[in-house]
Amino acid sequence: MPLRPKLRRRRRTKILATLGPASATPEVLARLFHGGADVFRLNFSHGSHDDHRERIRMIRELEEKSGRPIGILADVQGPKLRVGRFGGGRVFLQTGKPFRLDLNATPGDSERVNLPHPEIIEAASIGATLLLDDGKLRLRVVRKRADALETEVVVGGPLSDRKGVNVPDVVLPIPALTAKDREDLAFAIEHGANYIGLSFVQRPEDVAEAKALVGGRAWIMTKMEKPQALENLDAILALSDAVMVARGDLGVELPPEEVPLAQKRIVRAARALGKPVVVATQMLESMISAPAPTRAEASDVATAVFDGADAVMLSAETAAGQYPFEAVNIMDRIVARVEQDQGWRAIIEASRPEPERSAADAIAAAARQVGHTIGAQAIVAFTDSGSTALRVARERPESPIVGLTPNMDTARRLALVWGVHAVVAPEAHSMTDAVSKATRTASSEGFASHGQEIVVCAGVPFGQPGTTNALRVATVK
Questions:
Q1: Residue 235 contacts by C-beta under 8 Å, 6 or more apart in sequence?
Q2: What distance in Å separates the CA atoms of residue 345 and residue 279, rounded to the nearest whole number?
Q3: CB proximity list for 22: less than 8 A, separation 6 or greater
Q4: Which residues does the annotation mark as catalytic?
C-alpha cells in the first residue's frame, strides 16, 4: 500500500489567508492551515517587525511539523496619501460648497484643510476628481494655485483627521515604494518571504524598481489597485511574477460597475501569461463578525473559481475577525464544491489560452492532452525555478500537478499556484532517474498506486532552468 500523504488538498484553487491579532497563535495558525489555507499574508500596513518575525517563525515551525511547503506573502504598504488634521478633529462638508486643499499645516475647518502632498497639487488639473475617506466624499478641482487646489464638494459628508485621498484621474509622480516600504521589503527578504506584495503600482517602472531591489530572492506580486495600472496592464504583467486583483482599493477609484469587468480582464490576462493571479478583498467580509457568509459572498468566491484564478484571499476575516477558522473552512468548501461541478470544468476548458510558440508551452499543452487521453493520475513536473510547473498549471489540466523541485523556496512559491502540489526532492540526473523519482513520489504522496499511469515532464539536460522539452508516460510499479 502507498504511504498516505500528511496533507493533500481536494481542490485546485488555493487559499491565501492574512495573519493578524485574531490569528497570532500557533494553535490558530495550525487550524487555519489544516482548514485550508495554503499561503499566509503578512500585512506590513499593520504590526511591528517583531510581530512579523514571530509570525514567520510560527509558519516555518508549522511547515516543519506538517511536512508541506507553506508560502509567505509580505504585503508592503505603499504610499498613503492623507489630508491633515482639523481643529475639532471632524468637520462636515456640504455638497455644492467650496473646499480648499492647501500646503498650510494649520488645523483645518469646514472651508479648508492641509494636504501635505505638493505632488498632488502639482499633478492635478482643472476638472480632476479627488476622493476622500475611501471614496465616501468627492471633490472636483475648479481652480489651481501653486500652493492649493480650490474644489467644489460634489458629494459631501463627515470628514475627520488624516483620512485618505485618492486621485483616480491623475498619474502621480510618486514612487510605489516609500522609505518604510524599503525597510519592510529588506526585512521580509531577510526572513524568507516568498512573495512581495507591491502596492500603489501605476507604471511598469514601479515593478521594475521593486524587482531590482528584490534581485530574484522572492516573486513580485503586483497589486492591481489603480486605474492607471489597468491602462498599462500588459506591460505591468510582463514584468510581474504574480498579480493580485485588489478590489478594495480598485473599487475606490473605479465605479462599482467597472470592478467586476476589471477583475475578469486581469484574471484573463494573467492566465494567458501563466502568471499566478489572486482575487482579493471583501470575499467573505460579513464573516468578520458573523459565523457564516452571505449567499452573495459565496457566489463571489465561486465566480473567482469559475474564472480560473489561482487563489482567493481572506483579509480582515482571518486577521481581525471573530471567526477566522470558519472563514477559511467555508471558503475551502465553496472552492471544492465548485470544482466538482461539470460546468466548472467546461468553463475552464473553454477559457484555456492558446499555447505560446515555445517548446515549454508545447510540452505543457501535450502533458495536459496526454493526461486527459490516458486518464493520468497526476502530471509530475520537474521544476527548479518553478517555470515548468507554471507552464503546466497554465493549461489547467484535469490531472493534479505534482511539482517536484530541489529548491524549498520554489516549493513555497508554488504553494500559491493553481493545482500544484509541491514536493521538495533531490534533482534528477537523467530521464530514467526522473521517471523513477516521479513514480515513487506519485505513490508516496497518494496520487497513484500500482499499475496506474502518470505523465512526466522535465527539461533535458537536467539542472538548466527554462529547458522544458521532454515528456514521458510512466506506470507506477
A1: 204
A2: 19
A3: 28, 318, 319, 320, 321, 322, 324
A4: 41, 82, 223, 281
Q: What is the pLDDT along the chain (477 residues), one digit of tens a residue?
A: 344 445 889 999 999 999 999 999 999 999 999 999 999 999 999 999 999 999 999 999 999 999 999 999 999 999 999 999 999 999 999 999 999 999 999 999 999 999 999 999 999 999 999 999 999 999 999 999 999 999 999 999 999 999 999 999 899 999 999 999 999 999 999 999 999 999 999 999 999 999 999 999 999 999 999 999 999 999 999 999 999 999 999 999 999 999 999 999 999 999 999 999 999 999 999 999 999 999 999 999 999 999 999 999 999 999 999 999 999 999 999 999 999 999 999 999 999 999 989 999 999 999 999 999 999 999 999 999 999 999 999 999 999 999 999 999 999 999 999 999 999 999 999 999 999 999 999 999 999 999 999 999 998 888 777 678 899 999 999
Domains assigned to the chain = 14-78+176-342 (3.20.20.60), 90-166 (2.40.33.10), 359-475 (3.40.1380.20)
Q: Which residues contact 33 (CB under 8 A, 6 or more apart)?
A: 62, 66, 70
Return the closest-CA partner of residue 133 out of 91, 180, 183. Answer: 91
pTM of model > 0.85: yes
